[in-house]
Amino acid sequence: MAHTETQTIVSAPTSQVPGPMNIIATSVAGLQAWRRAVVGRQRLAELTPDQLRDIGHTEANRPVLQIKAGLITNLMSMR
Asked: Which of 29, 47, 71, 72 has an alpha carbon 20 to 30 Å from 55's alpha carbon atom?
C-alpha cells in the first residue's frame, strides 16, 4: 500500500486588514462596487433596444398592451 503525505499550508487571510484600517478598506471596497454598479446601469441606459437584444439583456419593463387573436369575438359572444 502506498503511503502519501499531504501538507496543509496555512496563511493569514488576505481579505482582513487588522485594526481600524479594516473599516477604511471595507468602505473603499463598498464605494468601488457602488461606482461600478452605477457606471454599468448608465452604460445599459445608453444602449438602444436592438443593442440590448444583441447582448441578451431583457428590455426595460414597459407597459405592453397584448391583444390575443379572437378577443373581440369572445367578448361579443359573452354579450
From this structure: 29
| φ/ψ bin of 70: left (φ > 0), alpha (ψ from -120 to 50), beta (otherwise) | left
Q: What is the DSSP letter of 14?
A: S
Cβ(37)–Cβ(45) below 8 Å: no
Question: Quick count: other Cβ atoms within 10 Å of Cβ 74?
Answer: 9
Task: Spell out the residues 6+ positions from residue 76 whose beta carbon is closer than 8 angstroms to its own.
Answer: none
For the chain, give the number of residues.
79
Per-residue cell: 50: 436592438
Q: Give residue 77's pLDDT.
A: 84
The alpha-carbon radius of gyration of the chain (Å, integer) is: 28
Digit-coded pLDDT (tens) for 32-57: 999 999 999 999 889 888 888 888 88
